[in-house]
Amino acid sequence: MSQIDTERQLAVLGGAPLTEQNVPLGQHNFPDWHAYEAAFRDIFNRQYYTNHGPLAQRLEASLAEYCGVRHAMCTTNAEIALVLAAQALGLRGKVVVSALGHAWTAQSLLWADCEPLFCDVDTATGGLDLGMLESILAEDRPVAILAMNAWGGADNAAALRELADRHGVALYFDSAQSLGARTNSRRLGGNGAMEVFSLHSENLLSGAEGGVICTDDDALAAHIRNIRSNYGMGNVIVPVVKTSNGRLSEAQAAVALHNLQRIDEYLARNRSLFDSYSAALRGVPGVMLWQPGDETAEPTHQNLLLRVDEAAFGLSAAELALALRAENISARTVPVWLRSPVYADAARRHCQDETQAERLAHSLVQLPLGARVSVRQAEAIGRAIAALQAQAGSVRAALRRG
Ligand SMILES: Cc1ncc(COP(=O)(O)O)c(C=O)c1O
């Protein structure tokens, strides 16, 4: 049962914030400074900043081994990687994406001259609603499914593969936030034609910035390498119409390589923070920690999502986020990009009315979990949430007064 801190006055009711310094969202894992300094000295000694240097090559080999795939190809960031993936698959036409998707997923399709087609989600898992997906595949004849593994979780790849194969469409994954997660006991990387990961610093494995495309397909890998940079430099040149400069620099590769060596430590810290939140919130009515994915998923806990039942908790997810921000705790609601005017046509077909994705998104609050959060802070945030629930009526009135 959570302990409610009765001594402390909540910030939204006029008390001092829970912490002086803001507690941020995101993983923000930094490698050991001395290791990074040595790696940087080597970069200077070699006088080699970029163009698929020795560190970028070593990172690709290490990531291929970690993800259990034949090829891992690093890029400037994950959005560029998603655009390259669509180009390498030769996609033309409609591509199914999740209605819960992040902005970049659908944006990558616009850059690749494809048309996103939103599919609703299963509110239990956050994965694509397989019934709706089946009818979209039959009626709208998309050329591919761009599925999403988000917030450190994993969608059921086997079920998606079966549907994609039966309808003869390509399947690839935006797994930007889920490097290190597993489904069916296998680490993500080899699902579908390709999986794309992000090395942005909010994610488990940071390269300061960066993206990774994983595949077991030799021809696709050759194609990606060719359009990624320098017109196939060092590789067999295959004919492509569009190329891009999507390289990863040696400095980024050094950060990612050193972070990769410590990934088990980061995973253990995430687990322990998750458990601390879980203990602190036990017994608080109307909130539960929510992990995307079904029973086959082993998440990395890189993002902590709290699912709020407004009737039982007394505040909506958006109100809870506001009240926590007053405490100097970064708390974010989940934006629904599908309602952006850019996607009006894409949403019209299947997602005209309020979707399950929106209902799910509107019930979620993302809380800090990462290198800049201590176990004591996680416990204190849990107690603050319990106190907000206990005084929900006054908190709501205070928020309404502004
Ligand atoms: C689901 C998803 N896809 C793509 C991206 C884009 O990643 P990047 O910032 O590396 O371009 C992000 C970024 O967080 C993401 O969350």
Automatic annotation (TrEMBL):
One of its GO terms (biological process) is polysaccharide biosynthetic process. Gene3D superfamilies: Aspartate Aminotransferase, domain 1 (3.90.1150.10), Type I PLP-dependent aspartate aminotransferase-like (Major domain) (3.40.640.10). The keyword Transferase applies. Keywords: Aminotransferase, Pyridoxal phosphate, Transferase. It holds the Pfam family DegT_DnrJ_EryC1. GO terms for molecular function: pyridoxal phosphate binding; transaminase activity. Belongs to the DegT/DnrJ/EryC1 family. This is DegT/DnrJ/EryC1/StrS aminotransferase. It comes from Chromobacterium alticapitis.
